[in-house]
Specification:
80 residues, three-stranded antiparallel sheet, globular
Length: 80
């Protein structure tokens, strides 16, 4: 399954995610902190969707109530 998600409250503008049988196969993030988001994307590939959600959900960025990892978790919820 492939989804495109428009994050809210963060610098990134679009997240394209592909998962198969409950496992993340690819993540591409447009905008945001390029190096950090490439690193996060690489780390979650081959991880179960539910595990990635539990690890990323609730992470904040500075004084913002959300972050790119948290928004990735929100996007991944669409796959469960």
């Amino acid at each position: 399954m492939k989804i495109s998600y428009r994050p809210r409250g963060v610098c990134s503008r679009l997240m394209n995610i592909e998962a198969e049988d409950g496992v993340i196969k690819s993540v591409e993030v447009v905008g945001g902190c390029n190096g950090n988001l490439k690193g996060i994307s690489s780390l979650v590939v081959d991880m179960p969707v539910k595990e990635a959600i539990s690890r990323l959900e609730g992470i904040t960025c500075g004084d913002k109530p959300t972050s790119c990892p948290d928004q990735l978790a929100q996007a991944l919820k669409q796959l469960t």
